[in-house]
Structures are given as C-alpha cells and as structure tokens.
Prior knowledge:
By secondary structure, this protein is mainly beta. Helices cover 8% and strands 55% of the residues. A hairpin with a 4-residue loop joins strand 7 and strand 8.
Amino acid sequence: xxxxxxxxxxxxxIIAISSTAFANGLSLNSVGARALGMGGxxxxxANDATAIYWNPAGLAGQGSSILVFGTDIMPMATYKMDxxxxxxxxxxxxxxxxxxxxxxxxxxxxxxxxxxxPAGLGAEWNSADFGSPEGYDFLSKIGVVNISPAxxxxxxxxxxxxxAVNVYYAMFDMSQPAMISATSAVQFEETSTGLGYGAxxxxxxxxxxxxxFGATFRTKTNVTMNGTAKNPAFAFYSAPTESKFDRDxxxxxxxxxxxxxxxxxxxxxxxxxxLSMWSENQELVAVYENAIWKSAMSGGGDTFELNWKDALQxxxxxxxxxxxxxxxxxxxxxxxxxxxxxxxxxxxxxSTNNVVxxxxxxxxxxMCFTGAAEYLLGAERDIEMVAxxxxxxxxxxxxxxxxxxxxxxxx
Length: 411
C-alpha cells in the first residue's frame, strides 16, 4: 500500500472518530409521503397530521386522523483520488424509517402526537478500496427519533397558532479500520446515544380562499451523546481497548416560511424558504473517560472544527386533483451544502443538491394511500488539501428515496 493511502486512512480515522457530522445529507428533507411528493414545500400547506413537523398551527381546523408512513433512503456515493489510485463507491444500503402521526380535532383546539424520524442516513464503503485489508467494516449510521406532542388553536377563522415539543433520541454507530502499519489494521468501533429537548412554534394565516401563509420556528436542540469507543490498537501500549466518552451535538435552529396558492379547487402551488442555522455547530468535542485515551486523542481527536455555514433551502411544490379520488404531485428544491471543503470526508458526505420529486394519492372512503419519491442529484466536490482536516479527492453523492403512507380519517 502506498504511503499516500496510509496517510489518507489515518486522516480519515482522525476525522471520523471526532465527528458525528449532521449535515444536510443526514437530515430527512421531507417528512411525510405527501410533503415529499411536493418537494417539501409544506410550511404554508400543513394540512395533514405531519403539520406537527412542518407547522404545528396547521393542526387547527383539520379533521382528526391517523397517519403512518415509511421512508426508504438509498445513498449512492463515490470517492476518487487519482494520486493514491482510489476509485471507491458505497455499498448499496437501505435506511428505512417508520413514522406515525395522530391528530384529534376539538373545534378550535387540536392536539396531536408524532413519533417520527427527522434525521437518519449513513455510508458503507469497501475498506479495500481505500487500501485497508479486506474484512474490516468501514461505515457510519445515524438515526434520530423524535417524540413530539403538539397542540394548536384557531384564534380566528383565518389565524392559527401551534406548538410542538420535541424529544430527540439520537443514535450513532461508526466502524472503520485503524491502520497500525502499512499492511495491518485493527477494527475501530464507536456507538453512542443521547437525548435532547426543543420546541417548534408555528403560525398560519389564511388571507382568502386563494392564499395561505405559514411560518415556523424550531429551536436549537442540544444532544449529549454518551457511548463507548473500541480500538484494539491500544492493547499494544498496555492500555484499555475501550473507553466511554461524551460528545455534545446540536441540531440547529430552523426558520421557515411558506405560501400556498390555490387558483382553483383542483390546483395548489406552494413555495417555501427554509433556513437551517448550521453556524451554531462550529465544533464537536469528544471527552473520553479513560485518561490514556484522553491523552492519546488530544493530538487530533478531541476537537473537530466544522466551520459550517447557514444554509437556505428553496422549495417548490405542486398538487393537482386528477380525478375525484386521485391526486398527483411534483416538486423541486435546492439544497446547499453547509460544510466547507476542509471538513468534508467520506463517512459523512456533504454536497449541494438539486432535487426532483413526485407522488400520487388515492382516496377510498375514510382511507387514503400515498406514495412519493425523490432523487437528490449531488454536485461533485473536488477537495484539495486546504486545511489539516481536509480529505482531498473528488466526492460525489446522489440519494434516491421513496415513501409509502396510509391515512385513516376519523369521523
């Protein structure tokens, strides 16, 4: 194996050990099959039970319902570095998330509960593509489950307010080979979980039959991840091969505004602007319980600089009543990468995406079946050695996702 490959693997190890990066590629951009089909332009629409996520004020005034759906996400990433002879692509993996929402209308008041996955993704590579021996895991996997009770109140016939409480349970697993020589490695593993709390405030105003406006503010949610790291290489120094650790991570403040335009009874056109305040996550700090680990990792593993920038997503969605029972949807959104070149790595790809979406619903009595899909076309990132943490090479990732949902409307 070349010296360049050995250096690259060592660099990737430092990056991955110290970063559980929650960039745009790890946030589920469209919660709910209906919203997904409309490109996630749903803040001004927010008229099904997923309003708990998009805009809690939308719960007020809609009928009672139970909504369940599942989303399957399939990332397809590549990484090339000609100088080191690396031409790698991720293994085919399915990241499936089940979700459930409930809304009960009591006149002016509505209450709801959502148990859903707002973030989750991962990447799995063949370690041999990076110059490591065969048989070692080289992967990352993250998931967040949000338990979210909500309440909404219709202040007037036109104006509603809503509030949802967010209880985040986050899970993160990471495994990859740790090179101990030019030809041998050990398996590094890290597993952690954490809890965080926040809230979502929503406002919705129906100007008239044609225009409805929505606004949403979601607070920053701090999560302290607690877990265990395993590195057999420490045995060579008569040190423990495991150590517990803590790492503070923040899901950023989210501010969104949207408008839904209904020119007639069949057509809805929606526009959203959704701002994620990624600049609130400037660094990730891992604190190891074991003193030897703490000393050994202080050279590069305790703190990882992110230097992320705030990112504004622009979304457009269209919904059209094709027949009495069938509704069609299409959408588009622009999803800019918050991560600068110096913090991009293969276990947590971050790219600027152009995304196209589409979907259908079929209603039968009190039941409605919905399907939708989206394709994220990620722009290539040609990373140079611009900083100590940079992982040079050409990074690219596309994502295909589809969602199937079922709604039962209560009488």
